[in-house]
Amino acid sequence: MLPKPSKNTQPNLFYSQLRDMLDSHDPLVALAEMIPWGEFDESFEKYYSDEGRPAKPIRLMVGLLPLKQIENLSDENLFLQWKRNPYYQYFCGMSEYQPALPCDPTDLVYFRKRIGKEGVEKIFAVSVKMHGKEG
User: Fold this and answer.
1) Residue 124 is part of which domain span?
2) Is residue 70, in this structure, part of any structural domain at all?
3) What pLDDT score does 54 carry?
4) Of 11, 38, 108, 117, which residue is most buried, by most CB within 10 angstroms?
5) pLDDT tens, 121-133?
6) 105 falls within a domain
């Protein structure tokens, strides 16, 4: 089951918006703005059912895979860095700083199994397409 998008547009009284706290010229911020995240939602929603515990957001799970590759991190180190790095959190679609881990590192293994080789290739194909011949 995919999580329902929040309709709450009221800012949090205790936390600033993550976007307002970050350097807008940082490469991860720029990359997050360029990626067509909706394509992944459309492609991967077929792998989720309407029953059971809500899954983690597709953007979070998709965002973690390129970060892992870019930084050459293990799943465990990726999650540790995600917790420490607000740029990683913004890249993965968080609007506010999250002091806790987004999920268990094993969830990334399950996500890769869920989308299969075809899904992982789609994520990296979008990356190549964004960078043109350089990719």
Assistant:
1) 58-135
2) yes
3) 82
4) 108
5) 999 888 777 765 5
6) yes
